[in-house]
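Provenance

Sequences were taken from public entries as deposited. Structures were produced by running a predictor on each sequence independently, with no templates supplied. The record for Glycosyltransferase from Aquibacillus halophilus is shown for reference.
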Amino acid sequence: MKVAILTMFNDLSSTYSLVNVVAEQIRMMLNNNIKPIMLVSESCPDTARHGIFLDDRIEWRKVANHVDGEQIHWRDYTQATGEVHDTFYKEANVIAEDLVKKLSDADSCIMHDIHYQGWHLVHNVAVRKAQEKLPDLQFIAFTHSAPANRPAKTNWPLSARFSAMPNTVYVYPTQSGLSALAEQYNVPEEKCRTVNNSLDLLSYTHDSLKVLAEEVDLLSSDILVVYPGRLTVGKKFEKVASMCGAIKKNCGKTVKVIFCDFPSSDITPEKYKRFIRNKGIAFGLDQDDMFFTSDVEKFEHGLPRQGVLDLFTLSNLFICPSFSESFGLTVLEAASKGNFLVLNERVPALEEVGKNLNAYFMLWDARNFGYDTHEEYQPSEEAYYKEHAEIMMNIMNQNSTIHAITTARQRYSPQWIWMNQLKPLL
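Predicted structure for Glycosyltransferase:
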């Protein structure tokens, strides 16, 4: 499949919001093994490329922007009636001839604001002329601003901003605008679709998370738990796995646990990891629901601290059943990123800090000052976890901030938008 993106950009400055939208769509395609064809104005300099635009899998094709050696100066025709400048049709014909060449091998062409913006009227008309020689090419016309009110009277070519084009789907970033979009272009609402703008959180994180994201899904689970620490039995990694298993088994949530671990001398890592995984599975997790960052060769001695902090911006639940803590800095780090906190009440430091942070408390074995405590659960540890899993999920479900953070990560991620909205159009 060959997908062209027609923007007619003269520059690629990220201060122009549409550049960022296009960058996200290019990233979606590349991540799903589609090599996009990027159509820009011939006036757009190669030196303007940055970020994802530097990827050598993108094929750049520059569209004519000169007539008889003179640069075409775009004029803003936002009105519905009137006259166009003398060289308008000549310019449109030159652009149309070039578009036929540049789009001849494409299966789909995504247009961004070409039909909407008044200063793209010459390209709007040119695309329509080109389409006459490209009858099998599917067009997807994005509108990124509030649809224009349909005027009572229009005349050609200014009416192109209010006219449908054959074999074209019209797209708006929200469902609420589809009826207005259909009215502007005088098409049935059934020919209009929604493709939300996406939030690529990973693009703003430490490079280590980009590496990690190639190994494990960091975005789609309902509950994402991050637990950093030395891989020692005192940190009680298995209790985190067990609690997460209870959440998945009893609360109908998808769960992912990321253990940001680094080696300890008091137990063989593979032996302890096997024990942790077995505990998680026994309580309801699947093998793939648990991931140890040390399993990535680059992070076998630990994930960089900035990477851990950035992971907390993606996670929504922090569970700390640690046997002993003198303070528990990771609790503050998780709290600062909006995580729901579940702490071991029997550890004095965790109780003290947790009360200041309005944490949720559970009871696990612990070391106090001068003595150790041991918990016995009635009727069983499984029943205890089930009870608290249901309470925790009820609290989290009613917390508007946690709901917003989770929804932004899941529902508006590039992969969700791609799979559910953009890919079906192609």
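The two ends are 9 Å apart (CA to CA).
The chain has a mean pLDDT of 96.
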